[in-house]
Design goal:
Blueprint: H1 7-12, E1 17-18, E2 21-22, H2 25-36, H3 38-45, H4 50-62, H5 68-89, H6 93-104, H7 108-119, H8 132-139, H9 144-151, H10 156-165, H11 168-179, H12 186-200, H13 214-221, H14 226-239, H15 241-250, H16 262-270, H17 274-280, H18 286-294, H19 298-309, H20 316-335
Antiparallel strand pairs: 1-2
C-alpha cells in the first residue's frame, strides 16, 4: 500500500487483524465494497492481500442487510478521514482535528496521530504547509532534476503553484525531467533531502520513491494557470516535441469541451453559474460557443445572455479563471463517473 495521502490509506487502517480475528474495520471495508457494487468494489479489493480479501468477502457474504443510514455513516466517516488526511499533510492540523472530531468524537486525536505517523515518512515533508513562493525560493538555485524530484513529492495543488513560480526558463526543463522521473535510490534521495534540510532548517525524514511521469505531468499542468500551461507546453514542443504531444493527449483544456457529448456537456453547464459561463465564452471559438449555447436550458441561456450583456470590459485573466472553473467542474464529474472527457482532441471513438 502506498504511503501517500488519500482514501486508500484510510481503508488501510481498516485492515488490521488480531489473533486471526478481524477488527471491526473489516466490516467497514465490507460495507464499502458491498455499497460500491461489483466493479468499484473489485477495485477496492485489489488493494488488499489474498488473506484479507478472503476475510472481507466472507464478511460481505455473512453480513445481514445493512440499513442505508449505516452505509451513509460509514462512507461519511471514511470521507472525513480522507479529507482530514489531506489537511494534515498540508499542515492544516486544526482543520483535520476539527473534521475528525465531528465524525469520530473521542477517537479523533488517536486517528490524527496515525495520520501524522504515516505522513512523517514522506520525503520533503518539511516543505509541506509552507507557502509555494517560499518553496520556489528554496528550489530556484537547484538543478532542474532536483527540482523535479521535489515537485514529485508535493501535493499536486502545491506543486502546480511551485511550477508557476519558477523562472520561465526553468519551467520546461523541470517539466521534462518530471515526466521522465524514475524511482531513485533511497540513499541518494535521503542525501538530497539532508542537503536541503541544512539550508531550510527542518528535521530529517525517511525516504521513498518519487512518482513522476507523463500522466502526473499532465495532471500537474492541468492545475497551473493558463499562461504557465501554455508557456511550458510551448517550450516542451521546442525541446521535446514527442513529450509535449504525449502530455497534450492526456490533458483536458477548455477547447476540449467541444468533444463532450451533449448529455455530458449539459451536466457540466448545470454545475456552473450564468456569469461564469458568460465570461468563459468571451474569447471562445464560434463552434465551441455554438455548442455550449445549444446545450443550455432556455432559462440558463437567457441568464447567460443577460450576464454577457452586462459584463463590459473583461480581463483576459478573468476569462482564463472562468474557463478553468468550468474545466475543474468537468473533471470532478469525470471523477464521479458521470461524464467521459476526451483529451487532446481525440476522436472519442474508443468510448461506448
Amino acid at each position: 500500500m502506498t504511503g501517500s495521502p488519500g482514501g486508500v490509506d484510510v481503508l488501510e487502517r481498516s485492515k488490521s487483524t488480531t489473533n486471526g480475528r478481524p477488527f471491526p474495520g473489516v466490516r467497514t471495508v465490507a460495507i464499502v465494497v458491498a455499497a460500491l457494487g461489483a466493479e468499484a468494489g473489485g477495485t477496492i479489493l485489489s488493494l488488499f492481500s489474498e488473506s484479507e480479501v478472503e476475510a472481507i468477502v466472507r464478511e460481505v457474504k455473512d453480513m445481514p442487510s445493512v440499513p442505508a443510514a449505516e452505509v451513509h455513516k460509514v462512507i461519511s466517516r471514511l470521507r472525513d478521514e480522507a479529507v482530514a488526511q489531506s489537511y494534515a499533510v498540508a499542515g492544516g492540523l486544526d482543520k483535520a482535528r476539527q473534521l475528525l472530531r465531528r465524525s469520530h468524537g473521542a477517537d479523533a486525536d488517536a486517528i490524527l496521530d496515525q495520520i501524522l505517523a504515516a505522513t512523517a515518512a514522506l520525503p520533503f515533508e518539511f516543505l509541506r504547509g509552507r507557502p509555494p513562493e517560499q518553496i520556489v525560493n528554496f528550489l530556484t538555485s537547484e538543478h532542474p532534476q532536483v527540482i523535479a524530484l521535489v515537485v514529485a513529492h508535493l501535493p499536486t495543488s502545491t506543486a502546480a503553484k511551485v511550477i508557476e513560480g519558477l523562472p520561465a526558463d526553468l519551467r520546461a526543463l523541470v517539466a521534462a525531467r518530471y515526466a521522465n522521473l524514475e524511482a531513485i535510490d533511497n540513499e541518494v534521495l535521503a542525501e538530497i533531502e539532508r542537503s536541503m534540510l541544512k539550508r531550510v532548517g527542518a528535521r530529517t525524514l525517511k525516504a521513498e520513491a518519487a512518482h513522476g511521469g507523463v500522466k502526473p505531468l499532465a495532471q500537474l499542468l492541468n492545475n497551473v494557470n493558463s499562461d504557465t500551461e501554455k508557456a511550458v507546453l510551448g517550450d516542451l514542443e521546442r525541446i521535446e516535441p514527442a513529450l509535449a504531444l504525449a502530455v497534450r493527449d492526456l490533458m483536458f483544456v477548455f477547447e476540449d469541451i467541444i468533444h463532450i457529448d451533449d448529455r455530458g456537456l449539459q451536466e457540466v453547464l448545470r454545475a456552473a453559474d450564468a456569469r461564469t459561463i458568460a465570461v468563459a465564452l468571451r474569447d471562445a471559438a464560434a463552434p465551441l460557443r455554438d455548442k455550449i449555447e445549444r446545450n443550455l436550458s432556455q432559462r440558463a441561456g437567457e441568464d447567460v445572455k443577460e450576464s454577457a450583456s452586462s459584463l463590459g470590459m473583461v480581463r483576459r485573466s478573468d476569462v482564463a479563471a472562468a474557463q478553468r472553473q468550468i474545466i475543474e467542474g468537468a473533471r470532478k464529474l469525470e471523477e464521479e463517473g458521470r461524464i467521459v472527457l476526451v483529451r487532446g482532441g481525440a476522436s472519442g471513438g474508443d468510448f461506448v
